[in-house]
Design brief:
Blueprint: E1 4-9, H1 16-33, E2 46-49, H2 52-60, H3 73-88, H4 92-97, H5 110-120, E3 132-138, E4 143-148, H6 149-154, H7 161-168, E5 178-181, E6 187-192, H8 194-197, H9 201-209, H10 213-216, E7 231-236, H11 247-251, H12 254-283, E8 293-296, H13 312-328, H14 330-342
Parallel strand pairs: 1-2, 1-7, 2-3, 7-8
Antiparallel strand pairs: 3-4, 3-6, 5-6
Helix pairs in contact: 1-3, 1-13, 1-14, 3-5, 5-7
Length: 345
């Protein structure tokens, strides 16, 4: 039996550039060692993403005319570098009348929605080439809303990909909440999935456990309903957040003073906790299978930890942070490449 290969991608706004740089290296090595036309979407059995990670996930799972991966990860990197500025840019006037996003959401959603429409068009969730799991949170029903491409093919839970990408990106204080409608007319009021699963790797594990991969992928080299022993999980973050908060400043800061810190802390703490839980799960396995969980999360180096810093210098710093991580972890990344080749069907 071959391992069920799972890719999980964290949220982090423009910091998704770091994720794309790491994925580009993996894809280039797959092209060099296995197939000159290799694309990431053809090597993973399930891809999960929150917020910016969900946009990357949907990009690499877009179908071509043969139901293979249409885009290389380079396409995603180009989108961040070219479109990031227009999506996250806040005009001087908006900053003047709405400092820190305290009066309403900090960024207008129109540009984001236009870019999502231009890129994904009327692509439906059920048309993605592999099982995927995209996170969001339903603010009216107060529960997680998980978009699952497998479920979309057999139920009424099918959506336009552009709509689920808008929903999973609706980070409070950055973008406004959104209402989206399923293909059957059901309406959901949603915000960013990063609120509860900025690192969606554990969600991906849970989803994989109840997925009949052999049947879906039409190949019995993959296990139906795989256990942790049957999985290869690659989880990629958008950079380690090392910014500290002063006790003195927050001691009496009140609600307004906590707006940005609380979101930042919730997201980074969630990612760290999920990594701990999965590490402990894999430590219970035999010596060989213990090594089938990888958490790749670079230092941001000189890059800003802000999710909306789209200055050209910061974009370059994010790229450099990704490249530096590759230089220092080439052996681990090459090991992942060999395992992806070995477990491809």
């Amino acid at each position: 039996m071959k391992k069920t290969t799972i890719l999980s991608l964290d949220g982090g706004g423009i910091r998704g550039i770091v994720t794309c740089i790491i994925l580009r290296y993996i894809e280039e090595q797959l092209q060099y060692h296995d197939n000159p036309n290799a694309k990431l979407g053809d090597y993973f059995d399930l891809v999960s993403g929150s917020s910016t990670g969900a946009l990357i996930a949907c990009t690499i799972l877009c179908p071509d005319e043969n139901r293979k991966a249409k885009h290389s990860i380079q396409k995603g990197l180009e989108l961040y570098a070219e479109k990031g500025g227009s999506i996250f840019q806040v005009s001087f006037w908006e900053k003047l009348i709405n400092p820190f996003g305290l009066l309403n959401e900090k960024i207008s959603q129109e540009t984001l929605e236009k870019n999502l429409n231009d890129f994904f068009g009327n692509l439906e969730l059920k048309e993605l080439i592999k099982p995927c799991l995209i996170t969001s949170y339903d603010i009216e029903n107060r529960r997680a809303k998980l978009f699952n491409s497998c479920k979309a093919t057999i139920s009424t839970d099918n959506f336009y990909v552009k709509d689920i990408c808008r929903a999973t990106s609706a980070a409070p204080t950055y973008f406004s909440p959104v209402q989206i409608k399923s293909m059957y007319g059901q309406i959901f009021s949603l915000i960013d999935g990063g609120m509860f699963a900025n690192n969606p790797a554990l969600c991906a594990y849970a989803e994989a456990r109840k997925t009949p991969f052999a049947e879906i992928l039409k190949n019995h080299q993959k296990a139906n309903y795989p256990t942790v022993n049957d999985m290869l999980i690659i989880s990629i973050g958008t950079g380690i957040e090392s910014r500290s908060y002063s006790f003195k400043k927050l001691e009496k800061s009140g609600k307004i003073g906590w707006v940005n810190p609380i979101i930042d802390i919730l997201m980074s703490a969630n990612a760290e906790t999920v990594d701990y839980q999965l590490s402990q799960m894999f430590q219970t396995l035999g010596q060989r299978n213990q090594k089938n969980y990888y958490r790749l999360n670079p230092s941001l180096k000189n890059a800003s930890p802000a999710m909306d810093n789209v200055r050209r210098a910061n974009i370059e710093n994010l790229i450099q942070a990704g490249l530096s991580y590759i230089d220092n972890n080439r052996q681990v990344l090459n090991q992942i490449v060999q395992k992806l080749i070995k477990n491809k069907i």
